[in-house]
Specification:
single chain; alpha+beta; nine-stranded antiparallel sheet; seven-stranded antiparallel sheet; 14% helix; 32% strand
Length: 553
């Protein structure tokens, strides 16, 4: 009996291990399909050429997240990110009673934090690590917040107000010139202005119950929390209520045109930059006023609150000095070598650059007619023609196709790296078929969805620095081979802040090669340098189209 029971236990454990192994293998294949374990599939590599294309100033209004601060890079120079936002009223206010007194005006904007590194202490307090912040830790900068004098229209008058108004990355001077010159964050605490820094400390709020007199402590996650000028807001907001300035958002947004955030260096520091959810920000005005009873005529002093949300029109304003730090990026032409390709691909977010890729060799000395008979040149790569028209008449079955991009590790050794890149149809400014056919999602972090499509940085286990990015183009290649009328479109490659955002934003000055670029790239302040497919690049680092396939007997 004992031996039989023991045998059953061993069998059960072995089954669990086997199933776990199967699940592990499945997950690995799902995340890195075939890849190094390509079974008995055959592999061929094909040429890919690529060149750099700068965007110049680009549309940057109403982004989901925005940079604020100063970011310095040895590869791409220095960027100062300012910001302008309209304010909106969640509740309309038509009257204020007598003797209003402003108790406090507080601006608050949440910071992104790294949940994996957050620690909870025994007393309920926390130790946070900030996420999406780039540059020296706790770097000091000069932050000035002003009332904006620039009215941000919803619709563009050019074209009869039929399209949304566009605002661009290079409009900082216009907004700066129209600001109301009274600094609103004029608190004596320099950490709120002249020596501002992105503080990872949580906010501690102690309150006392008015009846029991018992104190309670609340812990609020890190965020920008600034005391604004009370007299200014009393005159501008409270005193304007009875004249109808807060009776509708349309009137209010024209009367108080928003806030302008201006960043400058403080002392000799280089500063740093954080990605912020300004839409989650607000101004809270707490004031006291006298209320007269409608029955007994008695006067009661009451406390009230006005909230101004940062949910109106916004614009990310970028001042770029691409020549700073001896950046090689500054010397790049607006459009790279479209004939031979560039050796390195510079991907830069914001007011940055796109890499344009062309699959397959450009050699075109032969073609095929509808019956597969050889003809002369047909403006289609001979490599693609041969895949469509195999000599033995047996079409190959594409199991997987990838583009593997090798990072210039030496150039990127001492700088922040974008965690993901995005490949799209450059001709038509839309995702590839592989994007749409990838069903994978990540409820905890939607930015990490589409893991079969990939594009996520692969890092060295020791150095923790990026080595490669891989993007799956299996269905793109299948369509090209199986459908002879499919066009081998140019592909665009960019850094991305959010893989779920696929819309494009307009360039301020479009040219022959480019008129728009992915919005999610405008949101990302970082850049990276990748090796291209040019023949002068070392074989081990060269960009190639890798196709794994099987062929019928």
């Amino acid at each position: 009996m004992y031996n039989n029971s023991f045998f059953k236990k061993i069998l059960l454990v072995a089954s669990v291990v086997f199933l776990y192994s199967c699940d592990k293998d499945y997950n690995e294949i799902g995340g890195d399909l075939i890849g190094e374990n390509n079974f008995d599939f055959k592999k061929e590599t094909y040429s890919v050429s690529g060149y750099n294309q700068k965007t110049g100033p680009i549309q940057s209004n109403n982004l989901e997240v925005n940079p604020l601060g100063i970011y310095s890079s040895t590869n791409f120079g220095e960027t100062t990110a300012n910001f302008n936002t309209q304010l909106t009223l969640p509740a309309l206010i038509t009257s204020v009673s007598t003797k209003p007194f402003v108790e406090s005006v507080v601006l608050s904007i949440p910071y992104y934090t790294d949940a994996a590194q957050t620690k909870t202490n025994a007393d309920g307090s926390h130790v946070y690590a900030l996420d999406s912040i780039y540059g020296p830790d706790k770097a000091k900068m000069k932050l000035s917040i002003y009332e904006s004098g620039y009215f941000m229209r919803d619709a563009d008058p050019i074209g009869g107000f039929q399209q949304s108004q566009k605002y661009f990355t290079d409009q900082n001077t216009e907004f700066d010139n129209l600001k109301i010159p009274t600094r609103l964050n004029d608190n004596a605490d320099k950490a709120q202005n002249d020596e501002f820094f992105f503080n990872p400390a949580e906010h501690v709020v102690v309150t006392t119950d008015t009846v029991t007199k018992v104190k309670s402590t609340a812990y609020i996650a890190p965020g920008m929390k600034l005391n604004l000028n009370k007299d200014y807001f009393k005159a501008k907001i409270i005193d304007a209520v009875n004249s109808g300035k807060l009776a509708s958002n349309e009137v209010f947004k024209n009367y108080f045109r928003g806030l302008y955030f201006k960043m400058e260096k403080s002392g000799g520091g280089q500063g740093n930059l954080a990605m912020l959810n300004f839409k989650g920000g607000k101004i809270t005005i707490i004031y006291n006023e006298d209320l007269v009873s409608t029955t007994g005529g008695a006067t009661t002093r009451v406390k009230k609150t006005i909230v101004l949300n940062m949910t109106g029109n916004t614009v990310s304003l970028l001042n770029n000095d691409f020549s700073a730090n001896g950046s090689a990026y500054d010397a790049l032409p607006i459009t790279g070598n479209t004939t031979e390709g560039d050796e390195k691909l510079f991907l830069k977010g914001g007011d940055g650059s796109v890499a344009v890729l062309e699959l397959f060799d450009k050699t075109d000395v032969k073609g095929y007619d509808a019956n597969g008979v050889l003809t002369g040149p047909n403006k289609i790569s001979d490599q693609l023609d041969d895949l469509r028209n195999p000599a033995d008449g047996k079409k190959i079955l594409i199991n997987e196709a990838n583009l593997v991009f090798h990072i210039d590790a030496a150039a990127m050794a001492n700088t922040y790296e974008p965690q993901r890149i995005y490949l799209y149809d450059f001709n038509n400014n839309r995702p590839l078929t592989d994007y749409y056919l990838d069903p994978t999602t990540n409820s905890a972090n939607p930015k990490k969805s589409k893991i079969v499509l990939d594009g996520i940085i692969k890092k060295d286990a020791t150095s923790k620095k990026g080595v490669t990015y891989k993007i799956r183009v299996t269905n793109q290649i299948r369509n090209l081979i199986n459908n002879k009328d499919s066009i081998n479109v140019k592909l665009g490659l960019v850094v991305t802040e959010d893989i779920g955002i696929i819309t494009s934003y307009k360039l301020k000055t479009p040219n022959t090669f480019i008129s728009q670029a992915p919005k999610a790239s405008v949101m990302n302040p970082l850049g990276t340098i990748l090796y291209s497919g040019k023949s002068t690049v070392a074989e081990a680092k060269r960009l190639k189209l890798e196709i794994y396939y099987t062929k019928p007997n």
